[in-house]
Amino acid sequence: MVRITKVHTGGGDGGETSLVDGSRVPKSDSRIEIVGTCDEVNAMLGFVLMEVERLPDAHADGGQRVTVRRVKQVCSKAIGRLQSELFDLGAELACPLENIPEFMQLVDQEDSDRLVDEMDAWNEELNPIESFILPTGSGPIAAMHLARTTTRRLERAMVSMKDEMRPLSLQYVNRLSDWIFVLTRWVSFRLGEEETLWTPKGKREAGIVEMTKRQSENI
Description:
By secondary structure, the chain is an all-alpha fold. It has one domain: Hypothetical Protein Ta1238, Chain: A (Up-down Bundle), CATH 1.20.1200. The chain has helices at 30-53, 66-93, 109-123, 139-159, 167-190, 208-217; strands at residues 16-18, 24-26. It has a two-stranded antiparallel ribbon with strand order 1-2. Strand 1 (16-18) and strand 2 form a beta hairpin. Helix 1 (30-53) runs antiparallel to helix 2.
């Protein structure tokens, strides 16, 4: 059991911090940037859960929205597990590869394969993708897209130090961004939301200037 009685130590006042093995590095170190990005992904997933929990459980007439309840159940269990796995990953990333303690809990192949199994289960309900999907939508959907793009940034940062990372950790993060994308599509489908698709240039609507002028005339 972890027991922390004081958060502030003053040890980082000079712009340095400690890795898990006790070595000191600047807070601008590439490894610290990676750890911070992993924490950012975790925080974004917490934001996703908040948005999911905000979904109304009842229709306007008071009837229960069973679909919403089921979305909440899946997201709460799946993302809750992911947040703990990301915490484990962050601890691993905060330690040089050659000095990872034997007692440290690491994401493993089972964790990585589970992401694929869950994606496959969600994909069974979804139609094939026939256009690029734009990162927008209701609160939970937009938040998931942001979490996905942040995960890709984590992956890029890890690739920049590929030789100092476990290949399995990099595999896990690559699959995680796909997992978030598929979950986003599944939640959109379950909630009955239309995905916002990319529009080719020749079909994009113009006329914003005219629209603005008409609105001004009607003020």
